[in-house]
Amino acid sequence: MAVTVKNQDAALRLLLVDAAENDAARVLACLTAAGTRLQAQRVATAAALRDALRNATWDALLCRLPHPAPRGAKKLGAPGALRLLQDAALDLPFILLADSLDDKAVTHALQAGAHEVFAWGELERLLPAIRREIRAARHRADHRAALEMLRASETRFRVLAANLPGMVFQLEYDPASGLHFSYVSDGCDKLIGLKPNELLSAPQRFVEVVDTADRAALDKALEDSAATCSMLNWEGRIRKRGQVKWINLRSTPQRLDNGGMQWQGIATDISRSKEAEAKLRRSREQLSELSYHLEAAKEEERERIARDIHDELGSTLVAIKIKTALLSAKLPEQPPGLRDMAGDIEGMLDQAMSTVGRVARELRPGILKEFGLSAALECQAEDFSQRTGIACRVQCDDEGAQLDEQTSVALFRIFQEALTNVAKHAHASLVVVRLRREKGCIVLEIRDNGRGISEADLNKPRSFGLRGIRERINSLNGEFAIGPAEPGGSHIMLSVPTARRAESTPPPEESPQRNLF
């Protein structure tokens, strides 16, 4: 029997199991009187119930107790209907309608999985119960769907965590019990040589594999991250089965309701990048040593050439000048051109001697060693002005600054290179130089009023002069900046520490850190 009763509400789809015609009619009449739209079907056999469950969607099943015995059909009781419902993997409200609530069949049906039982004489309360059980069934379905989504999400997460190159972890800090891992991925064994269950049960095992020298830094990183709720980013060494490995812990913290903290992040192996950094650092150190050696060799060669020019070429020119003067004094008045020619030769010798002196000073200024950097800069500026016609003003605010020879020579060579660039490219008429002491450093500023310098000029691949200046400053642990000047021209500013840094300094004593693990 299939009955449809129309009303404005959504249709309530009911299956009446093993109910007689008159009983089914009474139930439907009672529900209709309560004001609902019904779509109902009565089934009395297992085959009919299977077909109904397979061919349509239902909201609830109503089962009448005691069961009438249909003619020519095997009786379908509440236990059989429940088994069919469970075999079909359907979670539908199963409501019993019994003459007596004390019937043993009611107890057995409830034990088998029936959801509700109603006395036959209280059918007026049936509709709210059906609605309630339908809502409960929908809640159970939503709960199962949420669990299924959660299982799928966990599966995806575990697959992703298993394929990440490192260890995914969830670390929690409880004010009462301290730090503990609430989750670690299977990459734990490969990264630090511990099984996940070992780390979950004994979090201090993680600290035990961390190198002793890096444990204080790990504690401090955790404490700082917890105090400021900032990202945890720690790099340190671990010892795995006798091997040293660098790892990086990176995580964003989250405050918990109990006042603790939770870090969810990843630990990765950075040994290769650390090795690359160490190789690059060693390469730079070797380049710096080579550059220092080349500069020292260049200075030695300049000193030798300057000495040869001064001692041999200079003395030779002086001797020629003396002999020329003696010869000129003995020349007769006639013809008059001989004395003029001798005077011209003496003038050229004076010019040659001046050039020899200037070249010798540029190659190795003795004034730098005898009177210091300030005097050498002033002397070089005067030679530059005489040679190029560009005015060069030098202001030395701290003439008594004591610098080691390498620093003095480097600053002097940088000054020479800067003046050479001004003469070649700036088209300037004025250069202003200032040397001063500032916060433990010697600062050298060079400004000109020329055409200035552009980004393209700075990035030229063959800009060896500026590159050489940077290399010299780097070798002195100094800083270098170049850019346009106001209102025009270029501005070079460099600073170097007055005291050279030691090659290696002992690390400062760290305050004792509280071990959080």
Automatic annotation (TrEMBL):
Keyword Transferase assigned: yes
SMART domains listed in its UniProt record: HATPase_c
Pfam families: HATPase_c, HisKA_3, PAS_3
Region described as Disordered: spans on this chain: 498-517
GO CC list: membrane
Annotated keywords: Kinase, Transferase, Two-component regulatory system
Domain Histidine kinase: 308-500
Domain of life: Bacteria
Residue span(s) of domain PAC: 225-282
SUPFAM superfamilies the record matches: ATPase domain of HSP90 chaperone/DNA topoisomerase II/histidine kinase, CheY-like, PYP-like sensor domain (PAS domain)
Residues in PAS domain copies: 153-229
GO molecular function terms listed in the Swiss-Prot or TrEMBL record: phosphorelay sensor kinase activity; protein dimerization activity
UniProt keyword annotation of Transferase present: yes
Protein name (database record): Sensory transduction histidine kinase
Organism: Sterolibacterium denitrificans
Classification lineage: Bacteria, Pseudomonadati, Pseudomonadota, Betaproteobacteria, Nitrosomonadales
